[in-house]
Design a protein that fits this description.
Layout: H1 2-23, E1 45-47, E2 56-59, E3 65-66, E4 71-79, E5 85-93, E6 98-105, E7 111-113, E8 120-121, H2 129-139, E9 140-141, E10 145-146, H3 150-157
Antiparallel strand pairs: 1-2, 2-4, 3-4, 4-5, 5-6, 6-7, 6-8, 9-10
Length: 159
Amino acid sequence: MRKLFTLCFLTFAAGQVLAQVAALDPDWQESEAAAPPAFSAAHLVAIDMPHYVSLKFGVDPATLSITPDGIVRYVMVAQNATGSVNAMYEGIRCATGQVKTYARSTSNGAWALVKEPQWRDLSDNMPSKHAIAFARQGACDGRAAAASSVADILKALKK
C-alpha cells in the first residue's frame, strides 16, 4: 500500500512539475503537422511493452522527426497475433509529457485524420501505453526535452 501511495504521489508531483514547465513558455505554438507519412510494417523498431500487453508495437524509423518546437513525430504500428496492423501518426511533446494523435490508419491502409487532435497527458488512460513506453525508451531525453536527434532515438530503442 505504501508503494502504491508513493507511486501515486510521484506521478502527481511529476505532473505538477510538467505543468510548471509548460507555464514557463506561454507563447509556445505547435508547428503544423505534415501529412501523415507512408509507413512500412516490415522495418519497425520494436517498443518494449509490459508483459500483459498482447499487441506488439513498433516505430517506423523512416517516419521519425523532431520539429524545431520540440515535438517528436512518428508513426506507431500495432500488430496483433493474427498479423492485423493498426497505425497511428502521433507527436510527443516531452517538455510537457503530452501526446497527440493526428491520424489513424484505416483497414485499407489509408489515413483518417483526427478531426480535432488534442494534447493529452502521457499518464492518462486514453492514449495507449505505447506512447509513454516510447517516450521513456528513447523519444525523450529524460523528462524535459526531446532527444537531440532521430539517430539518438533509434540508438536508444535498439539497446
